Amino acid sequence: MIIPLRSATGTPRSAKRLPGRDLFLFAEKCLTSTDLNEKLTLTRQAKALDDRGRLEHDGGRAPAQPIAMVRFPERPVTVDPRELPRRKLTTPDGRAALLHALAHIEFTAIHLAWDLLYRFRGLPDEFYRDWLAVAAEEALHFELLRGRLRELGCDYGDLPSHRGLWDVAEDTAGDVAARLALVPRCMEARSLDVTPGMIAKFEQIGDEPSAAILRRILHDEIRHVALGSRWFQWVCQEHGTAPEDSYFELLDRYLRTEVRGPYNRELRLTAGFTAAELDRLEGIGN
Ligand SMILES: [Fe+2]
Ligand SMILES: [Fe+2]
């Protein structure tokens, strides 16, 4: 008789589909889980394995599941952006609302990074390493903001949020160039424009812990956008398309809202935007 091995909780091990060392199983498990803490743990575990060279990302054994398989925790509830609480920093409720909104962006960003590496197969090994590192940094950003929220007597999930960022992921699920143009090179790039002003506001109200978290986030986001630029150029080269024209065509085709400035030229140039791209953005977005 074969006695099945049991884990500490009494569940037969074979019944639990562990990701082992397969990057794509980690991605799938993280994206389909509804448990916030499990998502964070899986992200940390995958990055630690990859750092030790023990994660396999050889293109994936099974094809990616449709993006509709992605799940989020029950809380926060999602509402229309117009129903979100106001974010006036000078009141405690407003400060909590802003930090909650930022935590939600970071939490969604974990999924954006995982989905980018999960969905698009057959790319160089470095692509997968780069976006796993981004997923791990987004998880860190989320945890820093959640910690700060807790210090202020609030927690992630206590307030409603909206799903705007995820709509973009769904719209671009079939096109890696569109995903790179719209997510790192548009949504994330926007954070380079607005975060310095938010840091200054937190400093003005004397909230140094929140300002310090945002400084750390801004530092990392410059690199995330730069990776988006780098891989966007790589994909354009593979497809034989001109990066600048492709970028604007993709924005035109997929963007649901208007492109808006003002743009932080210095940070965007550091993050791989060209001066010509910025001139063109300013021409349509100011
Ligand atoms: Fe982030
Ligand atoms: Fe990011």
CATH topology label of the domain at 92-285:
Ferritin
The CATH first-level class of the domain at 92-285 comes to Mainly Alpha
Topology, number of strands = 0
Shape from CA axes?
globular
Beginning-to-end CA distance, first to last residue: 73 Å
Series of secondary-structure elements, N-terminal to C-terminal: HHHHHHHHHH
- Report the total helices: 10
Computed structural class: mainly alpha
Main sheet summary: none
The average pLDDT score comes to: 90
Low-confidence stretches: 1-16
Please provide a written account of the structure.
By secondary structure, the chain is mainly α. The protein has a domain at 92-285: Up-down Bundle (Ferritin), CATH 1.20.1260.10. It contains ten helices and no strands. The chain has helices at 23-32, 36-51, 92-119, 125-151, 164-171, 176-204, 208-239, 243-254, 265-270, 275-285. Helix 3 packs antiparallel against helix 4 (125-151) and helix 6 crosses helix 8 (243-254). Residues 1-16 have low confidence and may be disordered. The structure holds fe (ii) ion (2 copies). The site of one fe (ii) ion has 6 residues, from helix 4 and helix 7.
Which key features would you list for this structure?
286 residues; mainly alpha; 0% strand; binds fe (ii) ion
Short recap of the structure:
With 286 residues, this protein is mostly helical. The chain has helices at residues 23-32, 36-51, 92-119, 125-151, 164-171, 176-204, 208-239, 243-254, 265-270, 275-285.
